[in-house]
Design goal:
By secondary structure, this protein is an alpha+beta fold. It contains 8 helices and 4 strands; from the N terminus they run αββββααααααα. It has a domain of 182 residues: Ubiquitin Conjugating Enzyme (Roll), CATH 3.10.110.10. The protein is 40% helix and 8% strand. The chain has a 4-stranded antiparallel β-sheet with strand order 1-2-3-4. A hairpin with a 6-residue loop joins β1 and β2. The N and C termini lie far apart (82 Å). It comes from Linnemannia gamsii. InterPro entries: Ub_conjugating_enzyme (IPR050113), UBC (IPR000608), UBQ-conjugating_AS (IPR023313), UBQ-conjugating_enzyme/RWD (IPR016135). Belongs to the ubiquitin-conjugating enzyme family.
C-alpha cells in the first residue's frame, strides 16, 4: 500500500483526533492504526432513501497525497448513482476539482452531501443513474431496500440517540413508503456548487444539534439547509467571497447608476 509523506500523515492524524472530539453532524470516525486507510460512519440523511441507515466509508490515501486526491469507498453496500457496485465513490471534488488544501472533514462532508444530491450525469452505477432520471420511485424503492438490508444495524451505536421521553428516532423509510425526489437534481452537480455547498455546510456545522436539542424539536436543519440551499442565492460564496447573487445585484445597481448619469448628461447638453 502506498504511504503518504510523514507530514501529511501527521496532519491527517490531527484532523482525525479533532473530529473524534468534535464530530461533524452525522459523521463518526472509526479509530485505527493505519492513517493512510481512514474509516468513518456516515448517517443516512433524513428525507432521502438512505435515512435510518449507517454507512461505513473508507478514505484511502496515496503516496502523493495531498497533491493528488484520495479514493473513497463505501464498505457498506449502497444503491447510488455515484457509487459503483464495488463501493468506489465518484465525485468531482475527488477528481478534477481536487485541491491539496482540502481536509479530511471536507471530504467526508462532500460524500454525505452526495447522498442528498446524487449526480446521475456521471454515474458509476448506470442502473441507479437511469432509474433516478427516468423512474424515481423504482430508484427509491431499490435504495430503501438496500439500506434496510445492509445499513440498519452496524454503526448505529456510534451515534448518540435522543435521551428524553417521547423523542422520535429516525427509522428511515419502509419499502413502500418513499421519500420525495431531490429538487432540481442537476442543479448542484458541478464542482463549484459542490464546493460552495460544503463551504456553507462547514460553517453551519458549528451549530449542529446534539441529542438534547433533538429532544427540543431541532431536526438538524443546519446540515440540511446547507445541502438543500442554492449557494448561488446567498450573499457569501466559496471561501467567503461574494456569491453570484450579490455580484449580479451590484452589477445591476452600477448599470442603473451609469444609465441615470448618462441620461442627465444628455439632458444637460440639450438645455445648454
Amino acid at each position: 500500500m502506498d504511504i503518504p509523506p510523514p507530514a501529511a500523515l501527521r496532519k491527517i492524524a490531527r484532523e482525525v483526533h479533532a473530529m473524534v472530539n468534535d464530530p461533524p453532524e452525522g459523521i463518526r470516525m472509526i479509530l485505527g492504526e493505519d492513517m493512510s486507510d481512514i474509516q468513518a460512519w456516515i448517517q443516512g440523511p433524513e428525507g432521502t432513501p438512505y435515512a435510518g441507515g449507517y454507512f461505513r466509508l473508507r478514505v484511502q490515501l496515496n503516496a502523493d497525497f495531498p497533491n493528488s486526491p484520495p479514493k473513497c469507498f463505501f464498505v457498506t453496500k449502497i444503491f447510488h448513482p455515484n457509487v459503483s457496485k464495488q463501493g468506489e465513490v465518484c465525485v468531482s471534488t475527488l477528481k478534477k476539482d481536487w485541491k491539496k488544501t482540502l481536509g479530511l472533514k471536507h471530504i467526508l462532508l462532500v460524500v454525505k452531501c452526495l447522498l442528498i444530491y446524487p449526480n446521475p450525469e456521471s454515474a458509476l452505477n448506470e442502473e441507479a443513474g437511469r432509474l433516478l432520471l427516468e423512474r424515481y420511485d423504482d430508484y427509491a424503492r431499490h435504495a430503501v431496500l438496500m439500506t434496510g438490508i445492509h445499513a440498519k444495524s452496524a454503526g448505529k451505536d456510534a451515534f448518540p440517540q435522543p435521551n428524553c421521553a417521547g423523542a422520535d428516532t429516525e427509522e428511515g423509510y419502509k419499502y413502500g413508503d418513499l421519500p420525495p425526489p431531490p429538487a432540481n437534481i442537476t442543479r448542484r452537480t458541478d464542482g463549484e456548487t459542490m464546493e460552495a455547498t460544503v463551504a456553507t455546510l462547514t460553517v453551519k456545522d458549528t451549530q449542529k444539534a446534539g441529542p438534547e436539542r433533538a429532544c427540543q424539536g431541532d431536526d438538524h436543519t443546519s446540515f440540511y439547509d446547507a445541502c438543500y440551499h442554492n449557494p448561488n442565492e446567498t450573499e457569501t460564496g466559496i471561501n467567503g467571497e461574494p456569491g453570484r447573487a450579490r455580484a449580479s445585484t451590484l452589477l445591476f445597481i452600477v448599470g442603473c447608476g451609469m444609465f441615470i448619469l448618462l441620461t442627465l448628461l444628455l439632458e444637460l447638453e440639450y438645455y445648454l
